[in-house]
Hints:
With 118 residues, the protein is α/β, with parallel strands linked by helices. Helix content is 17%, strand content 32%. A hairpin with a 6-residue loop joins strand 6 (94-96) and strand 7.
Amino acid sequence: MKFMHMALIVSDLKRAADFYESILGLTKIARPDLGFDGLWYGLDGGSELHLMLLDNPYADCSKPEHGGRDNHIALQSDAFDKIRQRLDSVVIPYTMSRSGRKALFFRDPDGNTIELMA
């Protein structure tokens, strides 16, 4: 079994692209016409992140303050400290992992939770 991709719903593709490219440093890859707008990003190891511009059925759901107790994607990066500095510079709040690991949780502009691990 191999993990292939994760998909997140976003409400504004330009805003999402700015976030995922400028904060996380991701690079777009080709995306086929699927009948709705979206973006795909390639990740190490051949997996992908898919952003889908669709109505969000979870928009009015309350979310826990700590992202580790919510649905989330976990990304490992050698640029952990650099990304943390980017989060600080644009005042994106995050919480540190409660496990003691070098990891933190933050939300994208649409409230999707991302765990960043060193």
